[in-house]
Amino acid sequence: MYNILKLFIMGDIDYFISQVMWVNFIMFIWFNTDAFTDYFSWVKIFKVKDYKNYIQSNRRMTYSDFIFLNKPNFFTKLISCRPCLQFWIVLSTGFFFNFSSIAGVYVISYIIYKILNKYVY
């Protein structure tokens, strides 16, 4: 079983699991918590104060949706689209872990994120 899995990801299993967990950690923090808005409320370019004022009337709005509505461009579309952002996170974590397993990491991390999003949050 280990040999089949090793052939699938073309790398070490420890790097694969670490990369999947980091991708899911970043995605969960960005889309499912208010950690970014709480920790970066002092930086004016993120417009966190405007967001906090806006959610007083519209509680279902997330920060990523808010910035896309206020500044619709490629970058804000990228960070508000879950599969798009996850792809770029997987690609960037490939620098630290293993580039040969990008397809496997993307698929497995997307499945795990969907399961976590359904049952945990």
Overall description:
Helices cover 70% and strands 0% of the residues. With 121 residues, the protein is mostly helical. The two termini are 32 Å apart. It contains eight helices and no strands. The model has no long low-confidence stretch (mean pLDDT 79). α5 runs antiparallel to α6.
Layout of SSEs?
Blueprint lengths: L1 H8 L3 H20 L2 H5 L8 H7 L8 H8 L3 H7 L1 H12 L8 H18 L2
Helix pairs in contact: 2-7, 2-8, 5-6, 7-8
Low-confidence stretches: none
Query: Tell me about the biggest sheet?
Result: none
Helix count, DSSP H or I runs of 4 or more residues:
8
Find the count of extended strands (DSSP E, 2+ residues). 0
Write the H/E string, N to C: HHHHHHHH
Helix content: over 70%
First CA to last CA: what distance? 32 Å
Q: Mean pLDDT, rounded to whole units?
A: 79
The whole-angstrom Rg is: 17 Å
Notable characteristics:
single chain, 121 residues, mainly alpha, 70% helix
What is the structure about, briefly put?
The chain has 121 residues and is mainly α.
